[in-house]
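hey so i finally got around to running the thing on that chain from the lab meeting. sorry it took forever, my laptop kept dying and i had to restart like 3 times. anyway pasting the input first so we r on the same page abt which one it is
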Amino acid sequence: MLDQHRIRHAFTRAAAGFDAGDFLYREIRARMLERLPAVTAEPALVIDLGAGTGCATAGLQASFPAAQILSVDSSAAMLTAGSDVAQRICADATRLPLIDGCADAVVSNLMLHHCPAPAAVLTEARRVLSTQGFLMLTTFGRESLTELGRAWASADRFTHIAPFFDLQELGNLLAATGFSEPVLDLQTLTVTYDNLAKMMDDLRSTGSTNATGGRNPGLTGRNAWRRLVAAYDQLRRADGKLPVTIEIIFLLAWAGGYREEGAEIEIPVDTIGKGNRSRSI
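ok and heres what got predicted. didnt touch it at all, straight out
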């Protein structure tokens, strides 16, 4: 079970510098927003769930010019750090202070894997959606951070990385929480670093923290850090870079009733083909 208080504290601490270090969030957010034109809806209210500093606001407004964009995040510091956040609510994603069926779209970028109770988040998203509404989100897939996980396993006996979703698991959650006709696909990115310290700095700067129940209750000692560095160095590529695998699940699902019978959603081939990219740090 993830420690929600620890997660919220990490994002609050990261708020001031989040936008400077959120290259991964920016990249995935851009890919998600590219998919919105495939949804021929004209929502009046769009909820940006886990909005952070509100960087998706401009893109959502461009896709839906007539819509009201409501940014929701559990960290007040993240919301107030964003210059583009005009309408915002600080709230837990499992307990939204909104009436049933008030929204036409819920959009969420890289938030769900931080939630201790993802089924409760999806249930709440379904509750606030109208019967013609849709959910679009991204989240880390099962293979994300596998290199880091293997290196930590060689360094100490504690848990450091929470398990992420696979497609089947997420599809089952959608069905169990009342969503229909889901469209899910995977993209894999490889981010590369010169050294492990820079990688860990980037993770911390965007609010990532070890919130697992089996984490080390104390500080990581020098010996454990040396073992971690040595283990990860074994994974260096031929170009000398340390690889980090990031698997992203893109999800679109309906609250029910929106599409006419026989209608299809088309996801552009060129957006799906943008997987397997690399970025060097």
